[in-house]
Automatic annotation (TrEMBL):
First-level EC class: hydrolase
Reactions accelerated catalytically: 5,6-dihydrouracil + H2O = 3-(carbamoylamino)propanoate + H(+)
Modification N6-carboxylysine occurs at: K155
Needed co-factor(s): Zn(2+)
Transmembrane intervals: none
Protein known as: dihydropyrimidinase
Entry annotated with the keyword Phosphoprotein: yes
EC number: 3.5.2.2
Organism: Pichia membranifaciens NRRL Y-2026
Amino acid sequence: MSYDLVIYNGRIVTASDILPSSIYIGINNGIIETLTTSKLSGKREIDAEGGYIMPGGVDSHVHIDQDNAPAGDNFESGSRSAVAGGTTTIIPFAIQPKKEYDLLKVVEEYHQRANKHGGSYCDYGFHLIISEPTPEMLEKTFPAVCNKEAITSVKVYTTYPRYKLSDEQLLQIFLTNRKNNVTTMVHAENSDIIDFINNKLMSKKMTDPFFHTVSRPQLAEDEASYRAISLAKVIDVPMLIVHMSCESALDHVKKAQTDLLPIFAETCPQYLFLTGDYLKHDCCHHSSQGDEFQGAKYICSPPLRATQQDLEAVWKNLINGTVTVFSSDHAPSNYDHPLGKKKGLVNGIPHFKDVPNGLPGIETRLPLLFCYGVEKGRITPQKFVELTATNPAKLYGLSETKGTIGVGLDADFTIWYPEGKMERFSLTNDMLHHSIDYTPYEGMEFTNWPRYTILRGNVCFDRDNGGVVGDKVGNYLRRKGSVLAGSRAKLNPIFQ
Ligand code: DUC
Ligand code: ZN
Ligand code: ZN
């Protein structure tokens, strides 16, 4: 029997095991049909030459074609960059604009955005962002859209005037999500602390990009994380705190997990690799000296933390199991663009508050963690797979098709170079496939990179033979409920 694609001579990695390189993977119609030690033949055969064969990356937190980032990536460039970095599934956000209560219309709009330039290079789903919950909407339109679109996760904010919800609204959302088997993602930063400090900074004309880090202290994340956990505990509902950046906030998650609460944590590359120094105008990493606004390139929220010890604390929580998923939080804006980062520079005066928030990182997420985590011996290949593919697939209801390597699952793979095969290099932005004019990781050294990315049996990235070679064949993913949280005790009758 001949397969559409056969992959062999690589070490298959799952979240639990590394299999011997004698195994052949037989793929037909985009599905893994066989894993066997018998030799297989296929229309196309890929010799992994001893390199790791991992499940395609699942990036469960990316921002694409959002209104608040008009100088960011669209689905074409964002998904192209994803596959060039080993990611085969992304979950961007569909955002409820204020005063729009027809959530079906909201999601329809994002479907149109996804299809605008001929579709996506990788598979994708949507999380909903709820910015204005009304009782009517939560009772009727919300379950309707979750059902129709098979959406099983919602992000909410404790900060930003445009998105911020009160504690009572958060409880309402938690309860609604529990009833609809939807996972809640929370952006946890105390808004009043931030506003208070911001006003002080403004009055003292301390508006350089660096003051962004001062305006959002660790305590703001710490307090809001603890509060979000407390509110989720009232309802006994699964919750993930997104983009966690500091030890004290992660300690709250760790304690909740020890108490067997269904509380999960996400962190992102920027909180492992970058400190607040990058926001300083005289930072030695800035490419063109003399441009004093370049720190704006590193404005994201929560902000980059101050010290190397802060980064180490996040690494520690990634290794010890507190962190559940490692996402990019790809939220890019071009730097040299009037609606991009430079929106915060008016008549030569910097205003960090007006700089669009977020960093590009969809393509560098996996290579960074592979090179500096796996290859440096800080995490095992299995842990890498768990954080970057298996757990996000389980948490967001994709594990019947994505996130691991097994018979019957989608044939999504990232194949890495075997040791010593790839020439190490220093990253420059022109190597990347996003439509952004910088990378925060410029100049960093990479000892490996995805050699092939394969989506449902189609090679979509072949680094040595054409780069992005796939078509925009990405499918919209209908998702199931999370399988990470397990079942909950009966809902408190007063909440029925
Ligand atoms: N939250 C995100 O999730 N991404 C970018 C900025 C933000 O506040
Ligand atoms: Zn956020
Ligand atoms: Zn984000």
